[in-house]
């Protein structure tokens, strides 16, 4: 028994070392590729000049392809397990606001990869980086308010303008990654965007077990078991059902997420616009 236990522990240590090596190698490749990717995006952003909207759609499609490629690599080296061939259910046609809980750093890339691209809001400091600025602008990423109340109106106006031009808008209503085992209170910005633009809200539920790339599980400490990432449609809500009241819409959807988080599975609500799978 002692020999068997010692062998098992030795195998676990070897496996953990291999997984950490895969993380280090992946991060190294990423660091090497980022400068070239930024130059390519900057060049394409300047070359693609049919119309601003067409250029934005092309850039988002390219970013989405990059995210899907990254997740295929993570699956290949067994750092994560995620079935990308499984489409999201009942995705609204046209523009919509998509929200989700935020357990890991992979949530953004996974959603963007599945949707084929979307606009979103990022930390304003990222837009001050010369290398990142062309990619962010070219893919419809809005500079966030960063705690500045006077900038909040500008963020809402820019987001609504993009939604009205037909682009999905991705927002994490918690504002940051979810702590392990809980949800943070929802902010109202995503629901205000949906009410102003009069588009449906697509709610996605994300799980990652065991946890990785969460606040508690750092990048270079992957869990022993391969994390299983899952994204499912929780509900689709038309703001018209609450008379375009963003406060009511926020309470309604936040309550549903709390129910789901406690283990309940509410039915997917219907919405008037046509749906399709992605």
Question: Mind explaining what this structure looks like?
Answer:
By secondary structure, the protein is α/β, with parallel strands linked by helices. The chain has one domain (2-276). Helices cover 46% and strands 13% of the residues. It contains 7 helices and 8 strands, in the order ααββαβαβαβαββαβ. The chain has helices spanning 2-47, 52-76, 106-115, 133-138, 149-164, 189-197, 246-261, and strands at residues 91-92, 97-100, 119-122, 141-143, 169-171, 201-209, 228-237, 275-276. The strands form 2 sheets. The protein has a 6-stranded mixed β-sheet with strand order 4-3-5-2-6-7, sandwiched between helices. A two-stranded antiparallel sheet has the order 1-8. The longest helix is centred in the N-terminal third of the chain and has 46 residues, at 2-47. The chain is globular and about 65 Å long. Mean pLDDT is 84; it is low at 264-274.
């Amino acid at each position: 028994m002692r020999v068997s236990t010692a062998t098992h522990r030795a195998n676990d240590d070897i496996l953990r070392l291999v997984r950490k090596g895969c993380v280090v190698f992946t991060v190294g490749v990423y660091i090497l590729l980022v400068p070239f990717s930024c130059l390519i995006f900057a060049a394409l952003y300047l070359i693609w000049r049919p119309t601003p909207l067409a250029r934005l759609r092309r850039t988002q499609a390219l970013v989405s392809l990059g995210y899907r490629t990254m997740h295929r690599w993570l699956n290949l080296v067994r750092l994560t397990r995620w079935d990308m061939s499984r489409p999201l259910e009942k995705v609204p046609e046209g523009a919509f606001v998509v929200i989700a809980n935020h357990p890991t750093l992979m949530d953004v890339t996974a959603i963007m990869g599945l949707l084929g691209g979307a606009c979103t809001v990022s930390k304003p400091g990222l837009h001050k980086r010369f290398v990142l600025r062309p990619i962010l602008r070219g893919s419809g990423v809005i500079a966030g308010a960063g705690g500045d109340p006077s900038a909040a109106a500008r963020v809402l106006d820019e987001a609504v303008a993009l939604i009205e031009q037909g682009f999905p808008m991705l927002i994490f209503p918690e504002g940051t990654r979810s702590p392990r085992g809980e949800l943070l209170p929802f902010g109202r910005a995503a629901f205000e965007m949906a009410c102003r633009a009069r588009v449906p809200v697509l709610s996605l539920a994300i799980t990652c077990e065991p946890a990785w790339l969460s606040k508690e599980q750092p990048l270079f400490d992957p869990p022993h078991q391969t994390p299983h990432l899952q994204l499912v449609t929780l509900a689709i809500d038309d703001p018209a059902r609450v008379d375009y009241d963003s406060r009511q819409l926020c309470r309604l959807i936040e309550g549903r997420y709390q129910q789901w988080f406690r283990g309940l599975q509410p039915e997917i609500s219907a919405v008037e616009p046509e749906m399709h799978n992605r």
